[in-house]
Amino acid sequence: MSKIFETADAFPDKKSIEIEYWDLDSFDSEFAEYLLIKPNNSLYNSEKAILNLLPADIVDRGVQLHVRVSKLPSETVKIGIRDLRAEHLGKFIAIDGLVRKTTEVRPMLREAVFQCQRCYGILKVPQEGVAFKEPLDCSKEQGGCGRAATSTAFKLLTEKSQFIDTQKLEIQESPEGLRAGAQPERLSMYVEDDIVGQIAPGDRIVINGILRSQQRYNRVRGKSTLFDIFLEGNSIELREKEFEDVKIDDKEMKEIKKLAKNPNVYDTIIESIAPSIYGMIVEKEALALQLFSGVRKHMPDNTKIRGDIHILLVGDPGTAKSQLLEYISHLSPRGIYASGKSTTAAGLTAAAVRDEFGEGRWTLEAGALVLADGGIACIDEIDKMSSQDRSALHEAMEQQEIHVAKAGITASLKSRCALLAAANPKYGRFDEYQPISGQIDMAPALLSRFDVIFPVKDKPDEATDKSMAEHILLSHLGGEIKEHRSESEDSQFSEADEKTALKAVIPILEPEFLRKYIAHARRKIYPVMTPDAIQDITDFYVQLRRQEGSGDTPAVAITPRQLEALVRISEASARMRLSEKITSEDSERAIKITQYYLKRVASDSGIIDIDMIATGVGHSQRGRIIQLMDIIRDLSTGDKGGITDEEEVIENAEAKGLDRDQVVGDIEKLLRDGRIFKPSEKKLKLV
Fold it and tell me: Are residues 211 and 185 in the same domain?
């Protein structure tokens, strides 16, 4: 009673009385059961009973309260979208999923007030569904003249009619609940009055309501015997916690704790990631850490520090990059896979579209990065995306939010996901003597946002090639034996033969169990740095910043951006063994991975120089370019008209101790950048 009067006093700011199903069940179990079977009667009579309880003066104010029931018993009425059947029509059910689209909030007519243009009588016509109902005649019962609609006209009085806010949503199955390769199914739903505008695309929700049907209509054949289904929403539960949908029973929890205590937990997890792909141990270790993620932090000044680790794989064709991305997208409790060639900025972030779903209205549709909120977005062939589409990644990677301002819709969507991207070098194969920024068609500003960048090279090596060939051939042999045994009636191979051949590619941990282990770590473990770990990371950072470079200004080896990456990797390392403390073991693992990738992608003449990633030009190259510009300027003065001979420039540079091949490469870069040009063959001029 206190809740009813409190809500009535706050009307119209509050319009709903929220009741949890189990409270209703403990109050009247028979009525609670009846609600699930006959929700129309139950909710209508509940709202009528509330009006009867309220004093007349409150009712006269036009107070109309809704009853909203939440926390339905999941074992009986929480139904998957693909499991909806005719038997569920008209029942009160709960649907769990991911919001894919939302329309604008718009008023819908509930009770239309018409005026007869002959007698000026007022008529009220209740409206149901989406079809507009007009009076058939000027009803004498409502004090009208009785004329039929054919002999009079009716004017809709909008200011006297009753409207209610409405919004249409589309919900799809959560990707983590799908079997591999299955397409997520979708369901449309309508919400009304005070629960509109509460959710945005990308939100994970449980929506409780009544399943309705709507007859299909064909212009040629007329009404169809087929009906479409939609949900009339009664209440919405927003799932804020990550991985709530990954259920872990007591037996699995014991196995998770047992694995965490195993001293070889790191090796076990790393070996369980894509075992069919040979080698790539450090890369797989980084991918395992990415799955566990660092800790997202909310600071007192309302700033947020991301915990997700972004990884980029750049390498030669045929090095199983795409296969790794596919595997990780299936292994991650929330993984989305997209290919850059067929992906646009709208498909990655969000789009405002006008289609049938919104019945002509603008609809906001979530893209891959929003749908992967809390998981990993795997983008293959990121270098094939247009530069305009790639620019949409900047905000999503660092701020982990996507701001949309399109077609009058202004929205902020969450994209708190890690990015795992793969790219091919633009000249076909990776050249370890060239800076990485020059080999990928990507802006240095975007490259610098990746915490770890791995070059994946295909270098001939007899011992490695032999081991890889044996691994691949054994995998094929195991697959052949497996198919032969399943399809052949009198197979000559035994189960032992199959297991022996497939031994190398069977993961130590089942993917489903590993998903649960990762979900538990990300849901429950929030490690804190120990003084030893802080000291290790500080010493490494200061030592690299202290390194000596050539010239007056030393090369910048590392920036605070890489320092934050070290912290994130250390946090993920502690989470991997379910530890609440980040120890020296974790910080050393982070330092080892950082050193490994910096030496391979940011090494300039033996010195680590982060500018090779951040700006695309290393410290030594910048020095050479300045010298080259001075040489061209000196040689082109006087009566030469600002033009000089290319060979003369190269000879002068060699005389100053510069390498000929590097100078030729630097001249090419200056020509590409438009700082010099060739007025004729073998001639150079400053712009």
Answer: yes
